[in-house]
Structure formats: structure tokens, C-alpha cells
Amino acid sequence: MLCYAAYGFAYIVPATFVPAMAKAIVPDPSIFGWAWPLFGGTAAASTIVLARWQARFGARRVWMIAAFVLAAGTAAPLIVPGLPGILVAAVLVGGTFVTITMAGLQVAREVAGPAAAPLMAAMTAGFGLGQIAGPLLVAQLGDRGIPIALAGSALLVALSGLALIPKEKPCPT
């Protein structure tokens, strides 16, 4: 549940503020406006790829990998300056948004079986709290809030990816 809440926080910061950063860097909407179609296009494409990956690697590993990709996408505008970093963020964040949602809820079903509904409800509530907390944090941080929130979001979702690393079962003796 905490990993899913971290995802809500980590996703909303770039999804909300990267387009605003693009607009600040490039005033021409025909150029900065490509951030949203890239985000949406990769979100749509991820659903096609997800089923194959989930069948091959399992929902938990897909969620874990997507968390690391989301972390990279969230940090991209901080590492790659200008519009290229924003476009990389749009692709990586967009490509993980639906993936983590689908894989996370599948993991809930795997963990809780027929009693998954309460776990899914708690995960969704945690996600919602993360979505509320992200923009509130940016607002509290003022002018330097976006870069700090992006760095914090990237770190938070990377830590959730680490928490999702499957624990290998010990060999029977």
C-alpha cells in the first residue's frame, strides 16, 4: 500500500508540473504542447506491452521495473536540461502511469486473493493522498518547489521500487 501511495505522489508531480516547465522553457504551444501527446501516447502503448511483460515477468516485477523507470522519468528534467529532458519525462512517466496502476492492482489480487477489495481500496486511498500531497508540497516550497519535488518524487518512487524487489525464497535444506 505504501508503494502505491508513493506512486501517487511521484506520478502527480511530473504529470502536473512538467507541462508547466515545458511552457516556461518554450513559449510556443506547438512545441511545448508535445509533452501531453507523448505522455498520453506512451500511456496507451504501455497497455499493449504490459500484458506480455506481466505474463513473462509477473506483476510485482513489472511494477518494480516501472517504478524505476518512473523515477528516471521524474528526474529527467533535472538531469537533461530544457525541452529534451521534459520530453523524456513525458515518455517515461506516461509509459509507467497505466503500467503501475494495472500491475499494482494485480499484485493486490495475488496477495489478497478473493479478499483483495479492501487492499485495493486502501491502495487507491493511498494513491489519492499521494496525489494531493504532491502539489501541496510544491506550493509550500515556493519558486524552487518543482525541482525539489521532482527530486523527492524520484527518490520516493525509486525506494518503492527497491521495496518491491521480490524476495527470493531460501533453498530447502
What report would you give on this structure?
The protein is mainly α. Helices cover 86% and strands 0% of the residues. Helix 1 (2-25) runs parallel beside helix 6 (116-141), helix 1 (2-25) packs antiparallel against helix 7 (145-163) and helix 5 packs antiparallel against helix 6 (116-141). The longest helix has 31 residues, at 82-112.
Summarize the topology.
Blueprint: H1 2-25, H2 29-32, H3 35-57, H4 59-79, H5 82-112, H6 116-141, H7 145-163
Helix pairs in contact: 1-4, 1-5, 1-6, 1-7, 3-4, 3-5, 4-5, 4-7, 5-6, 6-7
Just name the CATH architecture: Up-down Bundle
Individual helix count:
7
Order of helices and strands: HHHHHHH
Number of domains: 1
Q: How is the main sheet built?
A: none
How many distinct beta strands?
A: 0
Overall pLDDT level: 86
Q: Report the end-to-end length measured between terminal Cα atoms.
A: 33 Å
Q: List unreliable stretches of 5+ residues.
A: none
Within CATH, the superfamily carries the name MFS general substrate transporter like domains
Taking Cα atoms only, what radius of gyration do you get, to the nearest Å? Answer: 17 Å
Structural class designation? mainly alpha
CATH C-level name: Mainly Alpha
According to CATH, the fold-level topology is Growth Hormone, Chain: A
Strand content: under 5%
Shape summary: globular
Portion of residues within helices: over 70%
